[in-house]
Automatic annotation (TrEMBL):
Family annotation (Pfam families): DAO, FAO_M, GCV_T, GCV_T_C
Protein family according to the UniProt entry: Belongs to the GcvT family.
EC number of this enzyme: 1.5.3.19
Gene name linked to the record: mlr_11
Domain FAD dependent oxidoreductase central residue range list: 371-426
FAD dependent oxidoreductase domain boundaries: 12-368
Domain of life: Bacteria
Keywords: Oxidoreductase
Domain GCVT N-terminal per the UniProt entry, residue ranges: 428-706
Name by which UniProt lists this protein: 4-methylaminobutanoate oxidase (Formaldehyde-forming)
GO molecular function: 4-methylaminobutyrate oxidase (demethylating) activity
GO cellular component term, pick one: cytoplasm
InterPro entries reported in the protein's UniProt record: FAD-dep_OxRdtase, FAD/NAD-bd_sf, FAO_M, GcvT/YgfZ_C, GcvT_C, GCVT_N, TrmE/GcvT-like
Length: 819
């Protein structure tokens, strides 16, 4: 190190790989000049140097993923014009192949969505596929999907060009400087300390340390679930006649990508059963390092990889490379401000896509730091989505082997991870399993997805994009909710007690709706940011004058808690207690719900005595518990918040008392189909931080005139003042009962593409696939246009006539809920 470290910087970035340099570059583009990058060894010395440099879209299933990807591709293609340093980007093209009907269907579903977001992917014939990749045996291929603008770049060149661009913008980059400590005071990051004792104070600290990030974060009490794994690619000797412009080929059936490399062929593996590397800690001195290949373990995977290019079997091997790449438990990056420390940001866990997604992620994080709000939907990548469970050594050990194969293989819409399961189980788990529950997983919760007639039948025979073997069982659950009564275990819902002198002030400041209500009132509300974008949608129940219960979905647990804690004023007194582990939430819904509840309780459960959106403590059998008359399925019913030690007794009592009323267990598939028939919204799935309640059709829960206002009030007032929105969330029902909706399907109005579906399910009561999505038009999207327009939804390349509605197609007058 020849240059003296500064003693202060506006932002200090830890890590000089692709992500760190991208973040620095994009910060300077936003006008932040006082940026310092600290690299422990040399730029790219961690994992960047050995990356394959693929700039290919894959299958992108969200608008945010598309934005992150396209920004990076466009930047790397043009960065040399700015810096004078090549990134090595070449648009050789990208070819994905499908050798079975399910894969073809999946690609046909997603290709139109990707085209909508600037990715020129289109289907080609098997003959055209073989012509583009003549070195391969593609005789089993049914279709190819090709993006001519995609390609490859040189990872080292990319990073060096970014570093130069960052320096041109004012950033300073130091190599050979190892950060030993993130300094903090009163819950706020204040700077860093190096191994030789030097300190740099800073307004922002950014962890971009790649696979070292977990242990660096842990030293500051920051939870970053991240695990390195062995990652292989093989490079053959020269292949005669192999073109440098050979497109990158991706084959999920062999878990391999193929591309040209120095006249030879590279076979890159994302094999099932991968090997985690260094579970305890990544060595500090591991630079430009390799791992000794395990030929015995990787041999069968190489054999499968070679089956796609058998003509290269007799060509010598130039190199079998094994190097570490870091992966997260759900294969999405860790990005954003950490919940443990204010002003401490992170961008890591790129899941072997650090070059591909580095630029887009760096741009998102730069805006997050400078503007205080991310510019795209970050619900799926926000670092606050995990608990400490996922960072334990045992969890990383068990989940790690599944991640590479899961990332690269063929997928279906309802697949869960198979490893590191049973982390969070309801007290009713064994009961439900014995009654035929099939469990899926969400944020480490075991969720009863659907119920089979017997436990032995509770398995998926074959994953598919069409009706699976459980479809009719789920239909029976759905009909029971509409015609009789169901019991659902909703214990995964996050529950927080918010108490103290200033609890009402905090809840009021966060909530768009009025929550300064009488005790016993349940209030549905959105929380939004300063721009009016969603931060949560949830219920806030006033239990006592200074005591509230906040209930929100499991996917928003960490974000909701962080938002509450971050908005307690310096002079305010509020305590927040996560009571989720102690409460088993049992939902009882359906036309017979009141009759069932009255059989087990002496409380007056009539509509007059226990009205909709109210809460009371009632008796159920021997037990006292909180009951809330709310619904997320569109039927009469209650949420019962049962202390966990009483949960099994209450459940048994309900099932026994309701036997002659047709009571049935119901799972998450039924929750989805019921709530979508009623067009209920769900943050993190249907709406995100880039959407607002007005356009999402939740304006009824926005009280602009409430005393004291709320965060985002002015932004929502401005949106409402513009009159009928041009973008509105609508409900759709396919007129053909055969196709299914899952999300991402394009929406057409009068033969013009106007949006896409956020989520879908089969509406067994409405008689077809149903879902919700945003439609955007040039003029205000009026009720008349919605009702009289010709609507279609594209499913796997076929447009299906659809009915669109601003109001719920099921029970728009809420008569069934309020009876």
């Amino acid at each position: 190190m020849t240059e003296t470290l500064p003693t202060h910087a506006q932002t200090v970035i830890i890590g000089g790989g692709s992500i760190g340099c991208n973040t620095a570059y994009h910060l300077t583009k936003l006008g932040m000049k006082d940026v310092v990058v600290l690299e422990r060894d040399q730029l790219t010395s961690g994992t960047t140097w050995h990356a394959a440099g693929l700039i290919v879209a894959g299958l992108l299933k969200s608008e945010a993923e598309c934005e992150i990807y396209t920004h990076g591709r466009d930047l790397y293609a043009n960065l040399e014009k700015e810096t004078g340093m090549s990134t090595g980007f070449r648009d050789v093209g990208y070819l994905q192949i499908a050798n079975n009907e399910e894969r073809v269907h999946e690609m046909r579903r997603l290709a139109p969505f990707m085209r909508r977001h600037g990715i020129n992917i289109y289907e080609i014939s098997p003959k055209e596929t073989a012509e583009l990749f003549p070195i391969g045996d593609l005789s089993d291929v049914l279709a190819g999907f090709y993006i001519p603008e995609d390609g490859r770049a040189n990872p080292v060149d990319v990073t060096m060009s970014l570093a130069k661009g960052a320096r041109m913008g004012g950033a300073k980059i130091f190599e050979g400087v190892t950060v030993s400590e993130i300094m903090a005071r009163n819950g706020t990051a204040t700077g860093v300390r190096t191994v030789d004792g030097q300190t740099i104070t800073a307004e922002n600290v950014v962890i971009c340390g790649g696979m070292w990030s977990r242990q660096l974060g842990a030293s500051a009490g920051i939870n970053l679930p991240l695990q390195a794994a062995e990652h292989y690619y093989l490079i053959t000797e020269n292949v005669e006649g192999l073109s440098r412009d050979l497109p990158v080929l991706e084959d999920p059936s062999t878990y391999t990508y193929y591309r040209e490399e120095m006249g030879g062929l590279m076979l890159g593996l994302f094999e099932p059963g991968a090997a985690p590397w260094k579970l305890d800690a990544i060595p500090d001195d591991f630079s430009f390092g390799e791992i000794e290949p395990d030929w015995d373990r990787v041999g069968p995977h190489l054999e499968l990889a070679y089956s796609r290019v058998p003509s290269t079997l007799d060509i010598g091997v130039r190199k079998l490379f094994c190097g570490p790449e870091s992966f997260t438990p759900d294969l999405a990056p860790l990005v954003g401000e950490t919940p443990e420390l204010r002003n401490c940001f992170v961008a890591c866990g790129m899941n072997s896509l650090g070059i591909l997604n580095g630029a887009g992620t760096g741009k998102v994080l730069a805006h997050w730091i400078v503007d205080g709000i991310p510019p795209i939907d970050v619900t799926g990548i926000n670092v606050n989505r995990f608990t400490k469970n996922e960072a334990t050594r045992a969890f990383r050990r068990d989940r790690g082997p599944e991640l590479l194969g899961k990332m690269f293989g063929q997928h279906c819409h309802n697949e869960s991870f198979n490893t590191a399961r049973n982390v969070k189980r309801s007290a009713l788990y064994d009961r439900l399993k014995s009654r035929g529950a099939f469990f899926s997983e969400s944020h480490s919760w075991e969720l009863a997805d659907w119920f089979a007639p017997t436990p032995e039948e509770a398995k998926i025979k074959e994953y598919s994009w069409s009706r699976q073997n459980w479809f009719n069982w789920h239909a029976e659950e759905h009909r029971a909710a509409r015609e009789e009564v169901i019991v659902m275990d909703m214990s995964s819902m996050s529950k927080f007690l918010v108490q103290g002198r200033d609890a009402c002030a905090l809840m009021g400041r966060l909530s768009c709706n009025e929550v300064d209500v009488e005790p016993g009132r349940v209030v549905y509300t959105a929380w939004v940011n300063e721009k009016g974008g969603f931060e949560a949608d949830l219920t806030v129940t006033r239990l006592e004058q200074d005591k509230y219960l906040v209930v929100v979905g499991e996917n928003s647990h960490g974000h909701t808690e962080m938002r509450m804690r971050r908005h307690i004023g310096a002079e305010e007194f509020v305590t927040i207690t996560d009571i989720t582990p102690g409460i088993t939430q049992i939902n009882v819904h359906g036309p017979n719900a009141r009759e069932l509840m009255q059989r087990v309780s002496f409380a007056d459960l009539s509509d007059k005595a226990f009205g909709f959106m109210t809460a009371q403590e009632i008796d159920v059998g021997y037990f006292n518990l909180l009951a809330m008359r709310v619904t997320f399925v569109g039927e009469l019913g209650w949420e019962l918040h049962v202390p966990a030690l009483h949960a099994v007794q209450v459940y048994d009592l309900l099932m026994e008392a309701g036997a002659d009323l047709g009571v049935r267990d119901a799972g998450m598939q039924t929750l989805g189909s019921l709530r979508l028939e009623k067009a209920y919204r769900d943050f993190g799935i249907d709406v995100d931080n880039t959407d607002n309640p007005i356009e999402a059709g939740l304006g009824f829960a926005v009280k602009l005139d409430k005393p004291g206002g709320f965060i985002g009030r002015d932004a929502l007032a401005e949106i409402r003042a513009q009159g009928v929105p041009k973008t509105r969330m609508l409900q759709f029902l396919l007129q053909d009962p055969e196709p299914l909706l899952y999300g991402n399907e394009l929406i057409y109005l009068n033969d013009r593409e106007v949006g896409y579906m956020q989520i879908g399910a089969f509406g067994h009561t409405l008689g077809g696939a149903v879902g919700i999505g945003f439609a955007e038009t040039d003029e205000p999207l009026t009720a008349e246009t919605v009702n009289t327009g010709s609507w279609e939804v594209e499913v796997a390349g076929v447009r299906i006539p659809a009915t669109a509605s601003l109001k719920p197609l099921y029970d728009p007058g809420m008569e069934k809920i309020k009876r």
